[in-house]
Batch of 2 targets.
Target 1
Amino acid sequence: MTIKRQRFLPHAYANRELLFTITELRQGDENIDVDPVFDAERGKLDLRDFSSCSDPILVFVEVRGVDSSLYEKILPAEERQAPPLRYLAVLHDAAGWYRVVAPLKQMDGVASGCIKFSPRDSTGLATLEAVAVRTKTGVRVSGFATRLGMRVASSPLITVMTREPAQTPGGSLDTRWEDFRTSTHSRRKRSSKRIYYLESTAEPPVLWLNRGVTDLVTVLESKATTGQRAVVRDLLNQAIAGPVWYGLIHTAILSVEQDEDELPTVREGWRRGLLIRVAGKLYPGMSREQGFNYLLERLFEMKQGYRDDAAVLIEEMVAAIHDVLDLPEIVRRAFKELA
Amino acid sequence: MMGQKTPLMKLTNQGLAAIDAAFLLGTTERLPDDPSFAAQIEGETVDLEGVNFTISKPGPESDPDAAVTLHQKLGIRRGVATDSKMWAWLATRHAAGALRRRWTTGERKLNRNRFVGRLVDNGLSRLWWAAELTLDDGMGPKAHRHAVGLLLLSQYRTDRLLSMGLVRHPPVILGVLDAIGKDLRWQVLNEICKRLGLLATTYAIDLMNREDAGDFVRRLYKDVRSGRDFATEDEPGAMA
């Protein structure tokens, strides 16, 4: 048995169509200028400069266009006069252990409110979005969500950089230094000029970095945040991270199987963690759990040979890894350093 | 009285590798003070003098009080509490004896993950997170202690709920606990969690307040119980 796609979004759903924006930022009594920290076009809010203060940050938000044009997409005709909807803003920390939800007040086609969060409760990266949820159960109408609590619309995600990450990038991957020339591992010793070696057969996998390469330790372990060394380190990290991510995800895909209820699953641990992160990039309009389940379904069907669009999925995965690693930001900083 | 703040550390990979069979047996009482075994977490300090890792009667029945005390005294925030290597440092450097006593039961061997495992498995982090995720705005100490007790009522319940990202939000997890109360049948909870996972694809369960989440899960609970009989089998995969 495989899960049909319709299970996940079986009803009219205004996916990423709520016009969501940030209008004001505050920390304690201080106002924070929105323009320098919020890139509306790219959907990025950078609050790292304000993370050292223990005061929570207040983000004032608005959803515009809450009117008949939206209702036509998500509500049966008989409910459009008095829409049974409420709007919420939600901040999800990327690590999955911190969530803040704030109700938005609706007036004159705009839903607005304030979401308050503490940077110290976040691991460094979070997403902010608005969602519309039904407030009562209506008469069942085919093609529409009619039950209390159902999610019917969402906004594009805003990525929020809340503070410098508490863990070093790739923190959960076991990374070790070794001089490959003197390694007891035959493959590492044989190609002792390699920069890195991913031992994906280890459980959990180990990323070996070659201490024997001149200056590699100095550059990769540099704490610099600006300057040439930081640029070289970040680009080198990217050069290593791309294939390592793909290698690990490929290994994770191979372990997708069916549970006792014939639902696709993957074992707990790093495999699951990686697929959850990629699913978030592949399906930004879905919740974490929803996106992950849908990805598992697609991967399982691909493994079984049920899908003839495996190349499409691989293409999407490569793009998702690119997004996870945020290469454009690294390149932008590198070009800025060159200029 | 406030004690002296000391830098908060996390185990390095070398430190993790040092947690071996001898350590679990207690031959090595606690992780040696070797600089290669731990690294400082920048900008984070902790008052370890205020935390008493000694548990007078180590056992499941002491877990709720231990959880509340650890949560109150440790004074850390969620950002750093998601770092499993930080918990590994606390567990192996400061709470090794207490965790050995708590988790050495009968003939079961002590599981390494109680020291260096995931947040759900580590003997300290599971307590801290149980207390953190059951503390909602405006909640008094008595109500909090009661909710922590409900979450820690069985190992399966704690593991299942803390492992589920969907419910890792105080209003939602409290709603679930309100609905299932003291029903300890693991199959019932397992079925509810499975259904919650599926329903979350269309219902905004993760955004519900305590009352709505409680009502939602109560309906599921009723439906699950009426669907079939659940025997009182042992919990699956219970870990020492």
Target 2
Amino acid sequence: MSTRVFGSGIRRREDPRLITGAATYTDDYTLPGMVHMVLLRSPHAHARIKRIDISRAKAAPGVVAAFTGSDIEGALNPMPCAWLVPNSNLKVAPYPCIAKDVVRYVGDIVAAVVAETPYQAADALDLITVDYQPLPAVIDPEKAKQPGAPQIHSGVENNVAFHWTVTGGDVDGAFKKADVIIKERIVQQRLIPNAMEPRSTLAHWSGASGELTLWNTTQNPHIARFLCSVVTGVPEDKLRVIATEVGGGFGSKIPAYPADFITVFCAKKLNRPVKWTESRRENFQGTTHGRDHVQDVELAATKDGKVLGVKATSYSGMGAYLSTAAPGIPTILHGLMLSGPYDIAAIKEDVYGIYSNGTPVEAYRGAGRPEATFILERMIDKLAAKLRMDPVDVRMKNFIPKFENGHTVPTGLSYDSGDYAGALKKLVEHVGYKDLRRQQAEDRKKGRYLGVGVSTYVEICGLGPSQVAGAVGFQGGLWESAIVRFHPTGKVNVFIGANPHGQGEETTFAQIVADEVGVDVNDVKIVHGDTQTTPMGWGTYGSRTTAVGGAALVMATRKIKEKAKVIAAHLLEAAVEDMDYKDGKFFVKGSPDKAKTIQDIALMANVAWNMPAGVEAGLEASSFYDPPNFTYPFGAHLAVVELDPETGQIDVRRYVAVDDCGPQINPVIVEGQVHGGVVQGIGQALWEGAVYDENGQLLTGSMLDYALPRADRLPDMEVLSTVTPSPHHPIGVKGIGEAGTIASTAAVYNAVIDALSPFGVETIRMPVTPERAFNAIQEAKAGRR
Amino acid sequence: MKFPISVTLNGRRYQREVEPRQLLVHLIRDLGGVTGTKIGCDTSQCGACTVLLDGVAVKSCTALSVQVDGASITTIEGLAVDGQLHPLQEAFWNKHGLQCGYCTPGMILAAHELLRTNPQPSDEQIRHGLEGNMCRCTGYQNIVRAVREAAAMRRKG
């Protein structure tokens, strides 16, 4: 092998099974004797359960069993929260798998029915009667904190789950010496992730051996096993989680869910395999949501556009219960990034995590970082408007200068490497920014309203050093692992602890291994998603799989090479220190024609007929890689939108992304990640948002009512990149999964405000629907804004 | 009450007794372990369950099993012939037109319908033709590229 496969856009190895229908997701499995579970969920946002009667359901045709909150008491422990943010007075309210006395959101589980067929189970569900005494409900996190708001959990005063602060630098001083202070209220609306595959669980309990196999739609099977053990009491060594095919997650398949453990409970009770698959309606109500922050932000600057400080107060909705990682998202993953790519000396944020009567909130693509980016990018644009400066110029003026090995920001984080001005420069040159602005001005005279918006970002990903994880209250480590195993024929299996579910690491990881040990990429198979065969790992989220798991892979292959070199030296009757290696061949320095290939060595190591003294048989290595730091990808995006002032309709006309995720293993896959991420961010800016009524009913509870991005509403995106390697990563890679979403909401929103500015509109709620844009224009015309 | 139906799925004939309320997608997923047809929603919005019914694409969650008595259904499993990928499958693979793969069977069959009715669509027509199928991963751009490539393959013959 002489050509590197690293960096080439080869076709994905996972695709043949996916394009032929051969892939098996959780709901595709059927086991002998399997029965089906359905869940009765609360139709009230907040109510007392006065009485529940499941007797008629139990007697219905095909029904095997039915259970309520009383039945699981003592059998299923309360749901744990796994991110206990320190110094925040965190109050983890009890989160039962099935509500017994009080329901706290529309979708809270009150009963489970198991029947021979899904249709019979659904029929029986209608026969359960529940007497509810409705209680007042509150959804908006800021309102939920007000005195007199409905009390959601006893002992949690004003519904404050936690109060966390971050400060860096002299904030008061910065605001005192500022020439201008910009203020804005930013509402990061609630979003509903909508992975295309609904969540599903299939529990197979073997009573005789006390072993449980759980097929589960999870981004992190090893965490799922750990949490399942905690809640169900099945010991970890007898618990196998399989999640080899998962249909998207975007954060919503990180947490543990009550439904999964109720399935286990039923399987144990009935000693039959039990499958539960949510409907899309259930997914809207019962699977976690994202964002939901109300923020008051202030920015201090000099009159020539230098930003001196940023401070914010954020009311972050948690929903009715604390989901697995929820408290860490608006705090650690958000507040610590509040100075972004800018050299801002002073920052401060007060974050209140607030219980409400909404669906629990979790990570959603970007998780905390899109919100931090939005704060900065919105405020910088407002500053530019106030000072009548160009938004690009203000950004250039404030960037941290290019650095290659560490830059500490006021929150204490040390960014690894960055060239923020370089990315923005590439962006403005590519789009012809000055011409674009000229065109925009000319079009405006003709009554065509284009808006141009820029957003730059730096994100924290590759989570992360385990010592830091512990220090910030994450109840686990954040390393990753890999086992690289050579078979006698020279073929390679790689077992990883992370669990890609669409991101393509079965391909990119094979590319890494192929280059590192000099085998054909088609001779490497990546195995993931089964806790019985893969080593422990913490999962796929936070753009960490390649940044951390990829590093583990590299370290394991390097151990392989070290051992192979010793065996090669023995076979060539040479000293180890005289050996050289190139492209899968080991040879004595200066004699490349008499080489042992890695395949030769793999065969010898496996048959072990002639091994060096003291060297074990086999050619296999594992690595547990704990990163020394996070990685910090960055970039600059630009959106052009067109506003029809007669209807309020906004269309994205052009979208350009420049992202820097370090060296790209497979540029086609990188581009695909950017595409998908950008569109999710556009969705937040223009279309998506959970809407609840005053009683806490979810009005956007189906795909009919919640506007997901569709093919006909989007332009072709232009995707560019710069390459700044991470200095601490063995192959310099940083991560790309969330970048698009982190940048695009702010870019599109800034473009929208730019388009609306001739009408005097300075702020507008997301999603900026035609109705909102139209009304804003009318109100501005009438002088009411 | 159950009704007898006879249906051909990917060239193979099946006879079943079905409830009148049974959705076609549930029948398909129960027949012979063929689970490539996916269920992504319950309001006929997402298109993951798209199949070909007598050669025409339908969302199989909007049809009842009793309605397809005597009909022939092609799912994603029936698209490749003798192990040879259909040009659309090949193009989705070439152009990275899928990530998690869950929407892909429906998306490919919706694209099949588009090219059946409009063999050489413009990008705008492709986007319009696929607006009834949702993908949360790709942002659609590589799906458009894939359909464009499949149309070009067809042009070349």
